[in-house]
Amino acid sequence: MNGLYHLGERSAREIDALVARALELRSGAAPRRFDGKALGLLFFNPSLRTQASFQRAAGKLGLDLVQLQGGAGGVWGIECEDGAVMDGANAEHVREAAPVLGRFVDVLCIRAFAGIKSLESDLRDPLLNGFRRFAGVPVVNMESALWHPCQALADWTTLEQYEIPQRAKFVLTWAWHPKPLPQAVPNSTLTMAAQRGMEVVLLRPRGYDLHPTVIENARSLAARSGGSLTITDDRASALAGASAVYAKSWASLDTWGDLEAESRQRAPLRDWCVSAEWMRQTAHARFLHCLPVRRNVVVRDEVLDGPWSVVVDQAENRLHAQTALLETVFTALERTPRVRSQARPSLEIQP
Ligand code: CP
């Protein structure tokens, strides 16, 4: 496996193997060790779970760790546009930054959220794709503008841990939040549940659709795996019979980058907060959220502290899923070791 950008690009066989290995590791199996190899972690955004779980996974696998932070006091601002005239804030181009880091580490993990300023730019996922293009080593996506595949892998592991049947009803619900948030998590959650073959329901108020390409992709994955996808704003019908309720807030594509318009659009939607009353309408569903979560905004205390919530196990599974993933990526590297180019650019002027 050559890195991981998006769970949807991986086969059912590959995912089944990763989830099975994550569950073995969760039960205490010893991971392989790759002493002398190095893992790079580059965060352009804050993190608690991703940072801690990747650091711990690196330790378990015997990897040297190079951890870098973007933003003030961290790495230089990185430009991704080809042909950019770099007279602004960014001091270096991904065409240099990525291969330089690729000389120091064997696998590079990147976190770079959507900026939620330009939809056109966010849809190109510029930092993740820039690093994938130029690093020269496998790149693992630790949440980009579009996808959070490591979260989705941990979520799949959690569904297996709780023995939620493959064909069970899985509700991904939008929730109110004071700020517009990226769509990487809901994109990956929807993809994951569709890939697993579940009866997936996307519950959202009007104006909060996910991108048509993501929906189309999820529908085709569901068709392949024997699952289904329904999109609705009818809460009662969505929750009836559900085995899992996954809450997340995300920004509207209709007002992407326009804070005032987005804020006006979501103002009447504060009742989109998961409560015990929601959960009582389900078939004893488990409640999932990727965390961090705003209590009594996205979900009420009674749900997080009640019998439904599996959010802490879900977070723990980040460690096991990523250990399994890195073990697979580093094992694949042993089979195809990197050959360093010995070529030097010639300075001879060609006639
Ligand atoms: N779920 C998740 O990625 O958590 P962090 O943002 O804290 O890493």
Write up this protein.
This protein is α/β, with parallel strands linked by helices and about 350 residues long. The chain has helices at about 10-25, 50-60, 95-105, 120-125, 125-135, 150-160, 185-195, 210-225, 235-240, 260-265, 275-280, 300-305, 310-335; strands spanning about 40-45, 65-70, 80, 90-95, 105-110, 140, 170-175, 200-205, 230, 245-250, 285-290. The protein has two domains: about 5-145 and about 320-335, 3-Layer(aba) Sandwich (Rossmann fold), CATH 3.40.50.1370; about 165-310, Aspartate/ornithine carbamoyltransferase (Rossmann fold, 3-Layer(aba) Sandwich). It is built from 13 helices and eleven strands. Helix 1 (about 10-25) crosses helix 6 (about 150-160), helix 1 crosses helix 13 and helix 6 packs across helix 13 (about 310-335). It is globular. The relative contact order is 0.16. It binds phosphoric acid mono(formamide)ester.
Quick tags:
alpha/beta; Rossmann fold; four-stranded parallel sheet; 351 residues; binds phosphoric acid mono(formamide)ester; single chain; five-stranded parallel sheet; globular; 40% helix; 11 strands
Topology:
Layout: H1 12-26, E1 38-43, H2 49-60, E2 64-69, E3 78-79, E4 92-93, H3 94-104, E5 107-111, H4 119-124, H5 126-134, E6 139-141, H6 149-161, E7 169-174, H7 184-195, E8 199-203, H8 212-225, E9 228-232, H9 235-239, E10 244-248, H10 259-266, H11 276-280, E11 286-288, H12 301-304, H13 311-335
Parallel strand pairs: 1-2, 1-5, 3-4, 5-6, 7-8, 7-10, 8-9, 10-11
The structure holds phosphoric acid mono(formamide)ester.
